[in-house]
Records
---
Amino acid sequence: MHAHTALPYDQTAETEWSNIVLATPEVCRATLDSLMGRDAEKLASYFYQHMLGHPQARSFLTADAVQQRLHQSMTRWLRSIFHHPMDDAAGIVAHQRLVGEVHARIQLPVHLVSRGARLLKHHLRLALAQEFDDAQIRAQATAYAEGLIDLALELMSVSYERNSQREARTDEAYRLFAIGQNVGVERERQRAVLMEWANEVMVALHCKSAASLPPLRKSEFGMWFHHKAIAMFEGDMEVEQILDIIERIDNVVLPLLRPRDGARGAVERVSDLQDEIDNLKFLLSTLFERNLEAENGRDALTRLFSRRFLPSVVSREINVSQKRNTGFALILLDLDHFKQVNDTHGHEGGDLVLQQASALLLSSVRNGDFVFRYGGEELLVMLVEVTAESARRIAELIRSKFESTPFSLAQGHSVSVTASIGVAMFDGHPDHQYLIKRADAAMYEAKQSGRNRVVMAR
Amino acid sequence: MHAHTALPYDQTAETEWSNIVLATPEVCRATLDSLMGRDAEKLASYFYQHMLGHPQARSFLTADAVQQRLHQSMTRWLRSIFHHPMDDAAGIVAHQRLVGEVHARIQLPVHLVSRGARLLKHHLRLALAQEFDDAQIRAQATAYAEGLIDLALELMSVSYERNSQREARTDEAYRLFAIGQNVGVERERQRAVLMEWANEVMVALHCKSAASLPPLRKSEFGMWFHHKAIAMFEGDMEVEQILDIIERIDNVVLPLLRPRDGARGAVERVSDLQDEIDNLKFLLSTLFERNLEAENGRDALTRLFSRRFLPSVVSREINVSQKRNTGFALILLDLDHFKQVNDTHGHEGGDLVLQQASALLLSSVRNGDFVFRYGGEELLVMLVEVTAESARRIAELIRSKFESTPFSLAQGHSVSVTASIGVAMFDGHPDHQYLIKRADAAMYEAKQSGRNRVVMAR
């Protein structure tokens, strides 16, 4: 495949590349070419020294083999950019994109690459000051070197971002897939392998000849937790707690039960082990249960979308709206005096009202609209393909439905609940958070100015 | 919260910022400050003119309101960077991170920002050439301006990447959530609303007084498809086909049936409409079915993990391995002469062998290991926490199990199938693709050197 026949953007990049080169006097180009022939290795060494000073970068460079290999590719890269940069602009452009793909695979983020490039540019500036007496030429050579490096980084960044976003999505899909694989069965299975290990320890304790107790870390449970559960429950605080307990069992509890030096163990410490195992079981079941709930994306009480996916849904609608030039609106609705409902009729009463309010909203919108539970007594509707006029009309309709609908409570009682409503039309601002804030401010104004009313956001 | 008390990296950034400023003579700093006071608006205009020439950037800047607002923030940003840059380095650093977060929310990628910055730096270089006669000072001022801009971009990039990856993950979670909401019910429901619309059209056709036929685009089906299905089925080619059909129905088929100018429609064209509706139904059911299959992440025949999540799983293990200094291995296994099995015993025979081969592998590994169907007759095992020695031993064990196990076919027949096996130990190279390639090359060598053997990758 020829890079020539790719996207228009690539053509732009090649033209840009050529333009930078052509705008530079031959003497500058030749000097940089020979400078790189001589100094590229030294520059690559500076680069890695500098990167090793950065904690996140260091993790990419620990293995000697990697460091050596990357040092070589860095040297080659520096030379390739400045060696006959006009011969194959398309090839150079394509190569930068490839580098970006590799960076995405090894998760080397753009900002670390930029950081390294800043250092390179600094050293190049110093080196070029030595090369030229003429200040004008020196400035041109510097601009040339920095221009090519910046453009190369930009090209890497294009493919890095595309690929790293794709990989982030696949990672998330994998995580959800791993959780979704029949969680009930998985929970019981892992509890079972944990208990098998515990049983093994107890048997070994009774069998005086066994040299040492089997470490939890190396058990089936330990292996599962370190290599599979960590991915499933990424970001949950119980993960670290479980890792700590595993370490404590292996390094503190087991050695006390059966010291390695053959001394008599403190068998009365068996209850310590049982306590740790109980903690493990508790944390594990918390993890499984939380993830069962959180992943379903719906609010348990109202069955509306939970707030979690609101940014995704609104961002997507902003894109649709920009592309197709259709309007959309957010309607943020807060139940008036909801605290009184809870105080007078108990939380069960409040819950009943929320469920009926949600049903009322769902019945007021279309197949393409979205309804979220935004907060405690705040509900949010996204109306797609509406004008400000119809958004206001629909909001007003919702308000009057609330006003006229008695909400049923237990034992044949009922209660009136009005709603304060803020409406924000999408105004072209690409930040979803900004739009939500506008709806929120309008709703606040509706509250302040007496409740049970609709306010359009400015 | 004080930015001072944040991560070590921030302190580094603040120190870097201060170092760039302190290394620059006061005259350069003062000149840039007053240059920005005078020219920042002009520079911001150049910036947006340039960005409008880029197709992807243009989509962020269409709305006048946005362009005006961003122009203002760009002007402010330029001034803030060069105005007393030592007074509050921590504040400046924190602000750049905030800008990166906003860019992530509006999905303005780093490479577009860098592109704009390249242009800014170019214009600044020209402007500074006018300001200073002394070449030395001019070079220092240029290095200063570019240094601060580069560092600011790098800081934006840090928070951009973190946030945009998080958002990509949430988007994917939302997509899977949207698909997972009882697909069977959803499929029937959307087919029903499509048929409701078709029915409405037919009724309107018979009722001569109705002015025009209801467009599909604005029907419940059209709304659902444009605002919900597009997110669920992102990237599937049927989506574009369905969008085309909806457009064709509304713009070609319906106007022929009932022209807007009141002329008599070609009622005999009803069959065209039915054909398009049949196409829609077919594409829709293809979409639902493909997504049901693809999302489950398992190979339908062997119930092993499908290849889809291999990059996620291996990347993650690379991270674990680097962090905890444990080895892991990939075992890539190809069934020997599998084509003969298929030719002699039919595809059913081949399928049976693959299923038994998968079961054999699953029974040979531990709770923390992974088994994938890598290709047609290629299976891949990831062994966690192993040395090269034990990886070779396990591979050899698998090879000998294959050699000694007769694979059952229909009607009491059986067949012998051996395996060629390549084993690659993780060697510190952070690219998962590189590791897979090494396992692949070793497996190829096992094939070439006579099959039914284990080769360790170099």
---
Amino acid sequence: MDLQTIRVELQASPYPVIIGSAALLSLGDQIRGLGFKAGTKVLLVTNAVVEAHYGASALQSLSEACLDASTLVIEAGEDQKTPATVGLIHDAAFARRLERGSLIVALGGGVVGDMAGFAAATWLRGIAVVQVPTTLLAMVDAAIGGKTGVNHPGGKNLIGAFHQPRLVLIDPSSLATLPEREFRAGMAEVIKYGVIGDPELLAELEASGPQLASLNTLSAELLQRILVRSAAAKAKVVAADEHEGGLRAILNYGHTLGHVVETLCGYGTYLHGEAVGLGMLAAGEISLAMGLWSASDQARQRTVIAAAGLPLAWPALNPDAVLACLQGDKKVREGQVRFVLPTGIGRVEIRSDVSEATIRSALASCA
Amino acid sequence: MDLQTIRVELQASPYPVIIGSAALLSLGDQIRGLGFKAGTKVLLVTNAVVEAHYGASALQSLSEACLDASTLVIEAGEDQKTPATVGLIHDAAFARRLERGSLIVALGGGVVGDMAGFAAATWLRGIAVVQVPTTLLAMVDAAIGGKTGVNHPGGKNLIGAFHQPRLVLIDPSSLATLPEREFRAGMAEVIKYGVIGDPELLAELEASGPQLASLNTLSAELLQRILVRSAAAKAKVVAADEHEGGLRAILNYGHTLGHVVETLCGYGTYLHGEAVGLGMLAAGEISLAMGLWSASDQARQRTVIAAAGLPLAWPALNPDAVLACLQGDKKVREGQVRFVLPTGIGRVEIRSDVSEATIRSALASCA
């Protein structure tokens, strides 16, 4: 299959998202195509599992393109997503004598991408990074848009920076080794793009039905279309609002309440995408209660989330704890919790006038 | 004395540098003038010495302007300029529940400014920072331009980010409590601006003679002119090259060899400005050896450095160690050491064709 390119049209630093089977084999050439010269130092940051599957291919592609590459394997669970792990990447950057013209390549899922991106953002006040996501979640969301960061004991992603990659390279064949549950979780973000802005994508997901739930049942053509369409949706929002000053907040659809689920259940109980799916269902219930969208729209959203094999029932959480947790969310502005609420398939609004009673009743509906 | 304003004309984020006696008392009002609303949370980051002298005034000004301010005192020696100390600022940001619209104010010297700035750059992917420098060095250099960061065991300022302040507020009266040696060290950066781009400033410094060496002998009018002129020089270079892609490198005049002195003698033996003075003298000797400028220009530079009471004789360093250290400097590009060399009073060039023999002979002349 040919490679397809979506451009993230940022004024200061536009960059391509290249998508297609076997894209990984062209990694080195693509980097050279950006203007990096032969002999440029490249630090390839990955985790042990991804390294075992794709590390050799990536390194070979870099070497064949005459880049001076070496690999750093880090622990990349959510609980290792800390300033200390970023410090290990900095140590490697120093040991390898990375210069301002050098490059970090993040090969892996969202945690690797966030940490390698943040390390690049903060080494020598910012060196280039290329994102090579290997999970569906990272492909359709985290790798595009320049958000990087790590967790603070007080909350997820509180420490970080905006640092746009120079290139995002998405090779769907690397999904072959992804656990099925993680594949399904990634599909939640795809559904999100449909609900917030792409009714055609949502219709296509609906038409696909339960084949959404597994890479084994999804055709290569549909997967490619999903990846391209999701990347285009993300690119459009990011280009319009690089630093999350306004519009970009719509990408947080399902995330405000999703973070609450992750926090209160303990990170790891639900995968991020699973929590986002639950968050979208709850946001839909709030919309319903506020008369912002119809029961049939909420039913359509629910059907697609079900088809993707994602959880539908909220865990039994104390509503008081949920409300307290919402107040601590970093998307709070001036003390008001801001929700991204759907007003139809393909349309959302940002609202900070959701009453406590409405939240409580929506939660009750989700149980 | 009236406040004077220099604007740093960055396209995306222009900001004012406000200079004048008693400026500190207007801190809160100036922040409100930027558009921060009543009730905005402000974390005032400072060190114990500065807090004792100016903390109460700053906090009072913030409170009177209806800002919700509190103070964090950090240890701010060069050896505490680490990711761990930035972590303490992050902890305070979390404890105070800083939001995206909140603000960090850095009140202190370069170390406070670098760390508070870096903490702001990396909290919630970047919140606003206001720089209130209290040392001459920070006033004329570090506080303007958005360079923030901390040290890595491998070298100074290797970890950091570009993060422009929203405002720089310079109150010369806060120099009253600065140790004289630190005042003199700051003057080295002022002399630098004269040599790299402002012959009139250099002439004025020459005319002032030994009164440069102490705040007690320097008139308030001349000090104000020096601060305004230095800020204007820095602002101009920063506006032309925000991320140090080219022109801004001229600000490193005296710094390449200055860093070598700091590294090899151990940080703390020489103050940064003292090392920069030695670095300028050595760079001048290289220029002389390469026929780039005249012996009389070098003599003028030396006379002003002497008038400021700065050291003139290089420490006895092994030339091999100096050369090895230069290779590790982060201003190396593709293996070539780049020097900022004067070609006349007010003019510099960036050269990467300085031979090892020339460096050795220049060092010998400096001893």
